[in-house]
Specification:
The chain has 417 residues and is of the alpha/beta class. It is 46% helix and 16% strand. It is elongated.
């Protein structure tokens, strides 16, 4: 078992960055963020999606700022969200003309909580440093942090070419993939150094280095973490849709997080046609929660089903309970402090059902094939009731709600005090 990592390594020391009241890095927990896919100039649709992402649990939301109309819309979006009671930091994603948009729209520069700059397309040749510097100077004036976000798809070609030529002159000791990884790391570090030289404090800088292959991401961030103490944003770009995107992102970021690397994450899923954008937030939360780094929603344990569980009742009940818990969490977080620690079990037969249910705070063991049509409910390890008939699901849902009120409600807190 030598070398087997049984527990996560301590978080890598990093400089904490305050992003609109949300701290990234330092001693803060890993932060979940997401990005809209609406036209930012469409205030109504952007507000609706930001609100949905935030209610799902996104603690930072990035929006595209690509032209005058979208820049002009940013203060309106911020104000509309505030009227809805939604306080979520907005991050402006700038490419090509960010320096001009921020200069021409000071209201946008003020409304955003952070600016994202891609050093690979902030400007080309002699314009690059000047336009990069203009954005940094705007950030300094408005006291905003900056994420320097390198992306392998828009990597600084001059830097990459120079490193390739140097590698070839040395007899090509590195592979082309290794040179590309080094170019990504250098692009982030050189840009951060330039930003600091201009006057942006280190505690206003976050770095990211996104690629689309799992092994490349692990290698790039391991090296970036070794050579820098900046706060790091993790994300596998172009991860894909469905299970492919979820598995690839979780594999890459799970390894890095286990090694103590990463201060904020985004799961960049391609939505399926008609799919829900909030799915990426749920996956990010589930990754952090299943690895034991944070607790966002109550855990619902459910068996996978087998030949003993031909009834779909337990599957439907597990799904319904999980959806009900997620739907209630935006309200429950405020009303029932600590409710995210709740553990619920929905089991499908008598083999492991009673035992698993006893391990949960509240659990139900539904009858399997050929078993007596009754469902024992266990609360805090003790059998509390036996449910029968067509209304088992509704009765158990009510028992869960009653348990939440009794354990996490005002009465329970008053008694504890």
């Amino acid at each position: 078992m030598t070398g087997y990592l049984t527990t996560p390594l301590p978080r890598r020391p990093s400089v904490g960055v305050n992003v609109g009241g949300v701290v990234v890095g330092g001693d803060a927990p890993v932060v979940v963020q997401s990005m809209t896919n609406t036209d930012t100039a469409d205030v109504d649709s952007t507000v609706a999606q930001v609100a949905a992402l935030h209610r799902a649990g996104s603690e930072l939301v990035r929006i595209t700022v690509d032209r005058d109309e979208s820049a002009a819309a940013v203060p309106k979006i911020r104000d509309r969200l505030a009227r809805l009671g939604i306080d979520v930091p907005l991050i402006g994603d700038f490419h090509y003309i960010g320096h001009k948009l921020l200069a021409d729209h000071p209201g946008c520069a003020e409304a955003l909580a952070k600016y994202r700059i891609n050093p690979g397309n902030v400007g080309f040749r002699e314009k690059r440093d000047r336009q990069f510097g203009a954005i940094v100077e705007t950030a300094i004036r408005h006291d905003k942090p900056v994420r320097i976000g390198v992306n392998w798809g828009s990597l600084d070609q001059e830097l990459l070419t120079r490193l390739m030529d140097e590698n070839q002159a040395k007899g090509s000791p590195l592979t082309a993939a290794e040179v590309m990884r080094e170019a990504i790391v250098q692009s982030a570090l050189i840009s951060a150094e330039l930003a600091e030289e201009i006057g942006l404090p280190r505690d206003r800088i976050i770095l990211s280095a996104k690629v689309s292959q799992v092994q490349d991401l692990i290698a790039v961030y391991a090296e970036l973490a070794r050579r820098s103490d900046h706060a790091l944003h993790l994300g596998l770009t172009e991860a894909g849709m469905g299970t492919k995107g979820i598995v690839a992102s979780s594999a890459a970021m799970g390894i890095l997080l286990q090694q103590g690397v990463g201060d904020t994450i985004r799961i960049s899923l391609t939505p399926e046609p008609g799919g829900d954008r909030t799915r990426e937030v749920q996956v990010a939360q589930e990754l952090l929660q299943t690895m034991g780094f944070r607790q966002f929603v109550p855990v619902v344990a459910a068996c996978p089903g087998c030949g003993r569980t031909t009834s779909t009742v337990f599957q439907e009940l597990a799904q319904k309970i999980q959806e009900d818990l997620r739907r209630n969490m935006p309200v429950w977080r405020d009303r029932y402090p600590g409710v995210e620690e709740l553990k619920v079990a929905v089991m499908g037969c008598i083999v492991n059902g009673p035992g698993e249910s006893k391990h949960a705070d509240i659990g139900i063991s539904l009858p399997g094939t050929g078993e007596t049509p009754s469902a024992p409910v266990f609360i805090d390890g003790r059998k509390a009731a036996t449910l029968r008939g067509a209304g088992i699901a509704e009765e158990f849902e009510k028992m869960v709600a009653d348990y939440v009120e009794r354990r996490f409600g005002q009465g329970a807190r008053s008694a504890a005090e």
